[in-house]
Amino acid sequence: MELSADVVVIGSGAGGAPVAAALAEAGRSVVVLEAGPRLETKDFTGDEEEMTARLWKIGAAGRVLTLYAGACVGGSTVINDALCFRPPGRLLEVWQDYYALPGLGAEGMEPYVNRVWEDIHAEPTGPDHTSRNAARLALGAKRLGWMASATPRSVRNCVNLGLCNFGCPSGASIVTRSPGSPVVKSSWTASTPVTPPASIRMRSARVRASTTAPARSARGT
Ligand SMILES: Cc1cc2nc3c(=O)[nH]c(=O)nc-3n(C[C@H](O)[C@H](O)[C@H](O)COP(=O)(O)OP(=O)(O)OC[C@H]3O[C@@H](n4cnc5c(N)ncnc54)[C@H](O)[C@@H]3O)c2cc1C
Hints:
Layout: E1 2-5, E2 7-10, H1 16-25, E3 30-33, H2 48-55, E4 56-61, E5 66-70, H3 89-98, H4 106-119, E6 122-123, H5 132-144, E7 153-154, E8 199-203, E9 206-210
Parallel strand pairs: 2-3
Antiparallel strand pairs: 1-9, 4-5, 6-7, 8-9
The chain binds flavin-adenine dinucleotide.
């Protein structure tokens, strides 16, 4: 198979999918390459062993700590907890100064963060969706005079199955591959999940990805 596009985005997770959507919205043709399989909500059985084998991979393994990640269409957004944290303003200010990115401090980033917030449908987490443990923690915090609140989540009609990490069987979790997700509406439906290409070539400023291994050249494409 050979695909041709203005831009090839590698990986369909939280990073790749929004970039692909934004580029497609701006009129570019985009192909998203995803190494993992495409699973639909109906495929999520809630069986931990089966789902871990189909959706997870070891992202990074050290001697002490192993980090896991999603390896499927949607990337880790398919297996994450849907908890939404706004980037702390103080940190954005530090990054702006450190990386010399004028205009991308707390104030400059606010409209973008707001847009993402809307796109991923981050909504407050009500008492119906917090555990008794969480309620006890909130009570303890209140007694100590500390501020405490439930973290917003990127879900629609969550029914508290507690299976976020194995692909949500109710389809409540908003993942980057959801057909209704604004993050992907313009790009994902048009793109084809394919296995990682054997080669990616730039030709006349257009990118071609091919699943056929190219003949070896002196330049070693
Ligand atoms: C269990 C778990 C729970 C989490 N809970 C939360 C949470 O509640 N809130 C929160 O904000 N964050 C959470 N995270 C973290 C969050 O999901 C990740 O930070 C985010 O998804 C990272 O985005 P990414 O695009 O970098 O990678 P990913 O979303 O992991 O996507 C990368 C994709 O690229 C594909 N890929 C990699 N290499 C190639 C290649 N060479 N060719 C083709 N495809 C490739 C992978 O298969 C994968 O699908 C959680 C993560 C995990 C694992």
